[in-house]
Amino acid sequence: MRFFTSVFVALALTSCAYDRSNLPAVEEHAVAMPDTFSAQAAMDVLLEGGNAVDAAIAAQFVLAVTLPEAGNIGGGGFMTLVMEGEPAFLDYREMAPEQATRDMYLDENGEVKPYNSLFGARAAGVPGTVAGMWAAHKRYGLLPWKRLLQPAVTLAEEGFKVPQALADNVSWYQQKLQKQELIGNFSKYFGHMKANQLFRQPELATTLKRIQTEGRAGFYEGETAQLIHTYMQENNGLINKADLTNYEAAWRKPITVEWNDYEVVTSPAPSSGGVAVAQILGMFSERADDIEQLEHNSAAYLHLMAEISKRVFSDRATYLGDPDFIDVPQAALIHPDYIESRAAEINLTAISDTDSIRPGLAESEDTTHFSIVDQWGNAVANTTTINLSFGSGVVVEGAGFLLNDEMDDFSAKPGVPNFFGAVGGEANEIQPHKRMLSSMTPTIVLHDDKVKLVTGSPGGTTIISSVAQSILSTLYFNLDAEQAVNAPRFHHQLLPKDTIRVHDGFDQQTLNKLTEMGYVLDKRRFGDVHLIKRTAAGLEAASEKSGRGRSLVIEKDQLANN
Ligand code: DON
């Protein structure tokens, strides 16, 4: 048995699992990435003949080195794919450890203990990223696994030039930890980082090399697993070796909905995002025509979307959770009759009473996203996270990577908001091996069976709004990719009552109108969207200007010369 396993591993590490012989003719390809290192790595893979999944794997591991706020091997994520026209969805979300219990973050009076689900080893769920990338490669990879890990290994070993924004984030985070008296090893690993200087991560390089040579087992077994196990034992954490060996990424059926002339392929539970985006687009279409000359980012648009979102977030809090543990009524929540009846309740000119919004079925701030389209028209939308910036703020000693604080995405106590202000109940309570509910919504939109849009975003619960608005901005209001990622976004999630979070950049008149209607406006940063849009002239790729993202398009003629 051992022999066959290692033969198989060796094959997977060196050869191609996916046959591209019957793929259609070569077209241009594009990447929209959260930093320049991942953009370069992904594009190099595409130019070498790799497909969108190969590029995604290379980028994912690079981000674990160059974007420690969110890129990771100690976290998880979701990947939405369309490969040879076939939609697929990979869930590599973290899981609660075996020893997790429902009330593990409550004190003796039943109150939520501050920071317990957000900081330190006990805040971490069992990481899913390496298993996810391994599963994606096994099913679709063209280039050898070893090749795909190489850019990350090199960047960790030889170092990378630290962008100013990363250095600023590290010092902001150190101050935050100090202020809250949260003691861990973050400064030991990242405190010496300096803008524009080389930053090397030797422990992380060694861990990545183990993953490079041993594949999935290089993380979930052997030395890395031992280091995680020991770190947990010494730091009041729960993850043990059995949790690691048993972790599996899951292929799930993506949500696919018809919307206008498009087919939207998006994230199923344990994401709440796909249901939410399908509801938003559906309710929007039901009511948009009732508003005369509906303009992009007008007060009327924001009000309509806020009313829609109230209903969406009420459903989210009640019905959504890990489908391996609870029955998620996904089909009912996106059924056209349900959408129609929910949309019909909306008053287009006045705010509805928050308390009156109930889940509608009858009884019966750092994550990172990237989008890739390869020369064969395959697409990957991948959102990955360790939850908050720099995750739980602690590094596995000896292995050199940050752990997630994803346990905060569970509902620690019914009705008590988590970091993102999201409330939940039984559906999202903590249970061993359960996946915590997510808002991550990597999404691909098809038109006439061809990839039209690849989109996604970080931003906690605001992800849902960012993704829905990126679809509406590009495909309903016809903004180009650059305009769409840079257009100000907004978000409403039922609670706090009548509060719309707004990004900088709305015109004052619009904001005044909303205030007159009774909305409270809360100025906030949103996560940066990275999207690819196909137009008659070809692919457009864009990363939001305010972030450190980078988008590249290689056109057909350039490809031919390559
Ligand atoms: O899965 C989720 O919904 C959250 N853990 C995402 C966290 C996030 O987007 C933080 N970023 N800005």
Structure at a glance:
By secondary structure, this protein is of the alpha+beta class. Helix content is 37%, strand content 16%.
Report the radius of gyration as a whole number of Å.
22 Å
Number of domains: 2
The major sheet is characterized as: 7 strands, antiparallel
Strand content: 15-25%
Bound molecules: 6-diazenyl-5-OXO-L-norleucine
Pathway: Sulfur metabolism; glutathione metabolism
Family: Belongs to the gamma-glutamyltransferase family.
Pfam families: G_glu_transpept
Protein name: Glutathione hydrolase proenzyme
Describe the structure.
This protein has about 550 residues and is an alpha+beta fold. The protein folds into 2 domains: about 5-100 and about 115-250 and about 370-405, no CATH class; about 250-365 and about 440-535, Gamma-glutamyltranspeptidase, large (L) subunit, C-terminal domain (Serum Albumin, Chain A, Domain 1, Orthogonal Bundle). About 35% of the residues lie in helices and about 15% in strands. It contains 19 helices and 18 strands. It has a 7-stranded antiparallel β-sheet with strand order 6-3-2-10-9-1-18. Helix 3 (about 50-65) runs parallel beside helix 5. The chain is globular. The two termini are about 45 Å apart. The chain binds 6-diazenyl-5-OXO-L-norleucine.
